[in-house]
Design a protein that fits this description.
alpha/beta, Arginase, Chain A, 9-stranded parallel sheet, globular
């Protein structure tokens, strides 16, 4: 089993907990150590795995100390969490990057069978590729959300890399990608051909400026995600404390909010934070991003999928050429829009479905304007 390949957390990190308060995270989770061995993961809800695979990064990527991240994460205090978290240790690099990919695919698939969320810390953004491949084992359609300042659709490389992994995903057959959403892209970092491809495939994207103006517009996209990856190059220079970063980008508060939205998603089963770089302040930020993700998980509403209208307000809106049906949860106040068999242009699933949306989408429909998310979904089929 691929879990056997995981190496334990260093004794130095584990021993650093000795004189810290008993309430901290590091003293209340299961940790894979050399002394204690591999933990019993039955009942675990979130499993943390460190990765150092950066050989296909494409972008200049420095070796990151997972030990420093763990020291910062372990010393945080948990929220009112009543579920088990396990740190399963690190996945050593294979002889080739493809060997690392294969191991990650097997680990992710195995953990999902146990109803455990995989949290990947470290490595380059191409790690999304083996995570996606793990869903193909069960012939499952996949929604990917990437928080990144670029789309990673470059077609100039033959190998999978941090700049081209999405091209490999969309061209490899059989294809199980249902939707791809980018949050935080910056137009001057993206070729026009990539923008055209996003439009042609009816994928979704939110520019950095729009995202920063109203962070809540990202929530429906993250709510529908199976895999969410944070490429930390998306941070602004001041948030990253990195001289080689970008002058514009997401600030530390916003990225923690996005992590919480990701954790809230009842659908999400893989979460990753990639493209890391050494910095004491950055170690603290990664630890806090993970804390907010777990806090989001703790606040899940168990609202996916919505099977009946019980507990939901139903609103039928008559437009000039069709009727749209919206649902609002009485518990979370979140919105969904119904898509029927008749709506789909090329229905893969042959059944009705509910698509996450915003209150503004409902208001737009009331003003005879089709929500953009609805239109792209039916075009994708």
């Amino acid at each position: 089993m691929s879990l056997d390949s995981l190496t334990p957390v260093s004794e130095e990190v584990f021993s650093s907990l000795t004189f810290l308060p008993r309430q901290i995270i590091g003293r209340n989770i299961k940790i894979h150590t050399k002394k204690l061995g591999f933990p019993e993961i039955q009942g675990t809800k979130i499993a943390i795995i460190g990765v150092e695979e950066i050989r296909n990064s494409f972008f200049p990527t420095q070796k990151y100390s997972l030990e420093n991240f763990r020291k910062e994460f372990y010393r945080l205090y948990p929220g009112n969490w009543d579920f088990q978290i396990s740190d399963l240790g690190d996945l050593p690099n294979g002889a080739e990057p493809e060997d690392t990919y294969f191991a990650l695919k097997e680990i992710s698939s195995h953990l999902r069978q146990l109803n455990i969320i995989s949290v990947i810390i470290g490595g380059s953004h191409d790690i999304i590729y083996p995570l996606y491949e793990s869903y193909k084992i069960n012939n499952q359609l996949v929604n990917i959300v990437s928080v990144d300042n670029q789309f990673d659709f470059s077609q100039e490389e033959e190998l999978v890399s941090g700049r081209s992994y999405m091209s490999k995903i969309i061209t490899k057959q059989p294809n199980y990608l249902n939707n791809y959403t980018n949050l935080g892209y910056q137009s001057y970092l993206i070729a026009q051909e990539e923008l055209d491809l996003i439009e042609k495939l009816h994928f979704e994207s939110i520019r950095l400026g729009l995202l920063l103006d109203k962070i809540s517009i990202a929530e429906p996209h993250l709510r529908d995600a199976d895999i969410t990856g944070f490429d930390m190059k998306v941070l602004s220079w001041d948030a990253a404390q990195n001289n080689s970063g970008n002058p514009n980008g997401i600030d530390s508060r916003t990225i923690c909010s996005l992590a919480r939205y990701a954790g809230l998603s009842d659908r999400l089963t893989c979460f990753g934070i990639f493209e890391l770089f050494p910095s004491t302040l950055f170690d603290k930020l990664i630890a806090q991003i993970l804390w907010y993700f777990i806090e989001g998980y703790n606040c899940r509403f168990d609202e996916y999928p919505v099977l009946t209208s019980q507990g939901y307000g139903k609103y039928t809106v008559t437009l000039s050429d069709r009727e749209l049906v919206f649902y609002q949860s009485e518990k979370s106040k979140r919105w969904w829009i119904e898509i029927t068999n008749e709506d789909y242009l090329n229905n893969k699933m042959k059944r009705s479905t509910l698509l996450s949306c915003t209150h503004q989408d409902y208001l737009d429909a009331c003003n005879d304007k089709l929500p953009d998310r609805w239109w792209k979904e039916i075009k994708r089929g």
